[in-house]
């Protein structure tokens, strides 16, 4: 056995001498390890920099940092595997056991003649898709390579499992786990599902076989794929074979009535069975009552007949067909037009109540799409996506949003525009946009179309979404313009949407530190109308808190941010909840309350881990490391966490934490570190046109220059800080500069 094992199927894993090693936190560093491991030749540093880094990130410096982390993983005393010089980098894998390499090597031989035990050991190493969760959407070359490797590995594993199921067919108990694995990675493959059904029946497990049959038919139908009959043939042929083969066991037997037998004078029974077929594999009497239009007594009588004839059975309040292919045949016997109408009724009934679990979301989208009504189907994906966001099921939310956008393309006129805007909103909240600049442009174009058609609420949504996208990527002037456009779009509206528009505009202007008088005026109008309409929306307390914070009224701001956090949590707005929590953390840091800040960091980390793959989780980790630096005087974890945050392209969050760390550096006498961090923060603040952070950076740089006796630099930064202090900056930042100027040695005590 090799001393070093590298598993790339599923989550990346490095094992040395039987011990799983802790991996670097940087996703790019882990991606670099996988990329080097599967390339047998050395690669140029330039190629690797272009593959995984962008110019503002100092690609060569980031590559050097990543290589230093990888050496600790792959190099051992007396054995150097990672080899690098000034121009090329390579990984010697001759004594590294790599799971995906083993899988492909096996396919280079003959699977039909290879030792079965070896096949099983190789199949067992497949823990999931290649580099699961390690996609880097912003880096097209790496992402394209990763997806290609993933598909190749998936095909190889599918072929391996199919071979094992075939070769072990004479021992069903041994073949069954491989059939289950085959279905898990190929859920829409009718052949795989048919082999699983056959093996379950051969093991005398008809109930599980029936469930797999129903699930397979449903998944394949939902995917819009044709059914070729393999599943039904597997069910019937295996059962006939089992009935003809004597056995000492007493297997469970099920009788299959002909569908024609159901055509009885009792039309209610047939109607109930038809609805149950649409709701298969399970339905409840209450659901049948809501969707069928029959009263309770007629449904009860029909169910009594169905149970007496062993067509339906009741288990735990749910109804199931005793024979799964009865449901399939009943469904097929319904005319297409009637079937669509029935699906529509079910979808409309499901949409009447809030979704409470993922299965309901799947039911809603399935029936809405099967109804043939594109508008209803796209609307269902919006609701399903929003529900997934509430429970932080971001991948599912992204899936529903993409599915809905594909449906919306087929819808005409303004309905398409409005649905597309709502779906783009779900998509952005579920995951950062790979091409955010064009994404923002597309949303603005949709908002313009909505405005032309008088869909003011959707126009506001589009402009506001574009503002958030541009704000997150440092285009604050453009974000400011989109914010004002959102407010202009709603001037002719009234009611709830106008209140939300004014509050959101006030919130964004306060975030951007632009037009604060207008923000205050809009907020006052929004508050007055919200009280009249008894409306509560988190944008109102968030805007109030931001304006109070700007005015150096911390206690008032804290109360508003806590109110906003509660409202966001209740509404399922996880990004808004994170922002409110982030602002509470900022106030604790400014108060030098690092114990309280640590508590907020813990909550941010838990929330960030559940949120989309943006800058939230890296920010929470960096803030937590900053608190550790403050409480334990250990700066190393913070330095490591900053690298990941830099890669997340979050200039404002990076500037805020760098300024806090620079303050701590000055307190501990680490003047050069403070100077570097404040200097980097100043660069970010200038790009973002953030006067408050520029003032704080100049103030810290002036103090660093004073301690270094650098008169020229002191005068430059002091003058810059004085000029900024006269501009509209946050009151607490002006207070900190004044305290530093008057009592420079005691700045850390203010």
TrEMBL record:
Gene3D superfamilies: Winged helix-like DNA-binding domain superfamily/Winged helix DNA-binding domain (1.10.10.10). It comes from the Bacteria. Keywords: Coiled coil. Residues 96-236 form the Bacterial transcriptional activator domain. Residues 502-536 form a coiled coil. This is Bacterial transcriptional activator domain-containing protein.
